[in-house]
Amino acid sequence: MTVPDAAELALPIDAAAFRAEVNAWARRVGVHPNEIHLRSMKRKWGSCSINGRVTFDTGLLDCPARERAEVIVHELLHLKVSNHGPLFRNLLRAYLFESDGHEALVSATEPD
Ligand SMILES: [Zn+2]
């Protein structure tokens, strides 16, 4: 566990803020999701369909910003790379690393 920073104390965020984050990440990653859904998923944090629909668990609204970003980038990257191979992991690490200068906690979060 780490000490939460100020941003993490401002929880939860609302659905509109979450969608804004997803859209911001989509621009950064360079993908164009057709639909962004937010619903209770119970067993995973997110999913991505081949027709460009990304779905996120509503539980993410209560997660620290850092964990939320990992799930968002993970699913959005699946619009570019469908598997979890070396290219996927390198891209995931690169985006999360450049976002805040910390090593990504990639192994700790495996949304699907
Ligand atoms: Zn995945």
Q: Can you put this structure into words, describing what you see?
A:
- The model has no long low-confidence stretch (mean pLDDT 85).
- The chain is globular and about 35 Å long.
- β2 (46-48) and β3 (53-57) form a beta hairpin.
- The longest helix is centred in the N-terminal third of the chain and has 15 residues, at 15-29.
- α2 (15-29) crosses α3 (65-77) and α3 runs antiparallel to α4 (86-100).
- Strands 1-3-2 form a 3-stranded mixed β-sheet, with helices on one face.
- It starts with 5 loop residues before the first helix and ends in a 12-residue tail after the last helix.
- The protein has 4 helices and 3 strands.
- The protein has one domain (10-100): Metalloproteases ("zincins"), catalytic domain (Zincin-like), CATH 3.30.2010.
- With 112 residues, it is an alpha+beta fold.
- Helix content is 42%, strand content 12%.
- The structure holds zinc ion.
Short key terms for the protein model shown above:
112 residues, three-stranded mixed β-sheet, alpha+beta, binds zinc ion, single chain, Zincin-like, 4 helices, 3 strands, globular
